[in-house]
């Protein structure tokens, strides 16, 4: 069951997803490899990149660490 | 019921809480005023500042907007 968000919240989640995908591709990582490095599920990473998840700060930090960027760099979009 | 986090996750939540408190005080806002501006509950803001909440990106953006900083500035600690 996917949660529905208001327009501005959905725009935020879409930007986050695109930013993660962009950084992942730049690091030449598959979703699977990123998920393994973060100790998160591959389908979760996929749903985050599609803007379907209201990601928590703890998971944002895990993803930033796996992408070798600081948390604030991950969210500088 | 408070969730317990591992050491590094708890350190992250503590740093976030301190950062929000610091920015709130610099803006001379009470927890109540910040909560009202973000459309969040005052007790929630209090628990975030005490490092008790694994805050989602949507709420992080609400708090950043209410404190007149960009999301990445809020998380630059």
How would you describe what is shown here?
Two copies of one chain form a homodimer. Chain A is mainly alpha-helical and 77 residues long. The first copy, chain A, has one domain: 434 Repressor (Amino-terminal Domain), CATH 1.10.260. Chain A contains five helices and no strands. In chain A, α2 crosses α3 and α2 packs across α4. The first copy, chain A, starts with 6 loop residues before the first helix and ends with a helix.
Secondary-structure map:
The structure is a homodimer of 77-residue chains.
Chain A: H1 7-26, H2 31-38, H3 42-49, H4 57-66, H5 71-74
Helix pairs in contact in A: 2-3, 2-4
Helix content of chain A: 55-70%
- SSE-based structural type of chain A: mainly alpha
Rounded to the nearest angstrom, the distance between the terminal CA atoms of chain A is 28 Å
Mean of residue pLDDT of chain A?
96
Number of discrete domains of chain A = 1
Q: Give the H and E element order of chain A.
A: HHHHH
Number of helices of chain A: 5
**CATH fold field value of chain A:** 434 Repressor (Amino-terminal Domain)
DSSP E strands of chain A, number? 0
Largest sheet of chain A: none
| CA-atom Rg of chain A in angstroms | 12 Å
Q: Give the uncertain stretches of chain A in residue-range form.
A: none
Task: Classify the beta-strand content of chain A into a percent band.
Answer: under 5%
- The CATH homologous superfamily of chain A corresponds to lambda repressor-like DNA-binding domains
Shape of chain A: globular
CATH level 1 name of chain A = Mainly Alpha
Oligomerization status of the protein chains: homodimer
| The CATH architecture of chain A | Orthogonal Bundle
